[in-house]
Design brief:
It is built from 11 helices and 19 strands. By secondary structure, the chain is an alpha/beta fold. The protein folds into 2 domains: 2-157 and 298-348, Medium-chain alcohol dehydrogenases, catalytic domain (Quinone Oxidoreductase, Chain A, domain 1, Alpha-Beta Complex), CATH 3.90.180.10; 162-294, NAD(P)-binding Rossmann-like Domain (Rossmann fold, 3-Layer(aba) Sandwich), CATH 3.40.50.720. It starts with a strand and ends with a strand.
């Protein structure tokens, strides 16, 4: 089979790999959809010869990209019971593997394993940008029949990350939340927060993304290129600031704006990867009694909860996708995605 490989310095290769065969405890999926995530760009942009991406060592061998996999079970290895997988079953993948035995792994948080280096499918192990994917059966999360494979791919990282952050902050319909960054994760957060009944203020420098945020339920929008973000959010909240803020941008100025836009006794959540910021501990944090929450993706249980929430509330996650590609379009797809002006893309098989 042929799979997409990030070679470094924004180069992509379509490489030949053997069709996978499941070993004990493993399954092979016939891929149906594999989403493009903003964190893919860290691998896409990494310098050739780089030794790590996102804190994980780079596999010295070519690795198939894509950590938002969704498909059907095509083959089952020895020791996999019907409770874990059935041929033809529609599934998502919780794209991490740890030691499998510690409390974090056993509670569905494999990415927090402290005992051994974690495997991230699509990063340091083969991912979903190919016709087939081999993973441990315990990583599978059922995909409800009501959801498309593309929606399942989104929930497998971007949308699931947004859901996990909102749940960490215990968002309710009483809250006003400012969401900084309206890329795929931020737009998912806007869509989900609106469905939870919150008042949403969307922040982004892109006019197209702000327009989409309004379509997805934002009550107000703020363009940092034309406004002082903190002042604009305070104007929209009777001078107090937002109850909750969420930074999905990862940009230092976005993070600082999120912190300073949060009201006294409020909660600011950070999900955007990378970079550093400097804050005044007294004025930005202590004298506001501020709570800072860091939220890294979600557990396998949280992934299933997100899928149920989307299904029960009839949330049209498919609207996130502005581009649907075939694997052979990979070079053009990532060139466009690298500009970070369009919406979310997905490879359909």
């Amino acid at each position: 089979m042929r799979g997409i490989v990030f070679s470094g310095d924004r180069e992509i290769e379509m490489m030949e790999f053997p069709d996978p065969t499941p070993g004990p405890g493993e399954v092979v999926l016939e891929m149906k959809a594999s989403g493009m995530c903003g964190s893919d760009l860290h691998q896409y942009r990494r310098p050739k010869g780089g030794t790590s991406v996102g804190g994980l060592p780079v596999n010295p061998n070519p690795v198939i990209a894509g950590h938002e996999p969704c498909g059907i079970v095509a083959a089952i290895g020895a020791g996999v019971s019907d409770k874990h997988a059935r041929i033809g079953q529609r599934v998502m993948v919780h794209h991490y593997k740890g030691c499998t035995a510690c409390n974090h792994c056993r509670s569905g948080w494999s990415q927090l394993c402290q005992r051994e280096p974690i495997t991230v499918y699509g990063n340091n192990a083969h991912g979903g940008h190919a016709p087939y994917l081999k993973v441990p059966a315990f990583t599978l999360v059922p995909l409800p029949d009501e959801l498309s494979f593309a929606a399942g791919a989104a929930i497998s990282c971007g949308t699931g990350t947004a859901y996990g952050a909102l749940r960490r902050m215990q968002l309710s319909g009483n809250n006003t939340i400012a969401i900084v960054g309206q890329g795929p994760v931020g737009l998912s957060a806007t869509q989900l927060a609106a469905a939870m009944g919150a008042r949403v203020i969307a922040v982004d420098i892109g006019h197209e993304r702000l327009s989409r945020a309004r379509e997805f339920g934002a009550d107000a929008t703020v363009d940092p290129g034309a406004n002082d973000v903190v002042g604009a959010i305070k104007d929209l909240t009777h001078g107090e600031g937002a109850d909750l803020t969420l930074d999905t941008s990862g940009a230092p100025e976005g993070r600082v704006a999120a912190v300073r836009s949060t009201k006294v006794w409020g909660i600011c959540c950070l999900v955007g990867e990378r970079n550093s910021i400097t804050l005044d501990v007294s004025t930005d944090l202590l004298r506001k009694q501020l709570t800072i929450v860091a939220s890294w993706t979600f557990s396998s249980i949280g992934q299933a909860e997100c899928a149920r929430f989307v299904t029960d509330r009839k949330i049209d996650v498919d609207r996130l996708f502005t581009h649907r590609w075939q694997l052979g379009d990979a070079e053009r797809a990532y060139q466009l995605f690298d500009q970070q002006t369009a919406g979310k893309g997905v490879f359909l098989m």
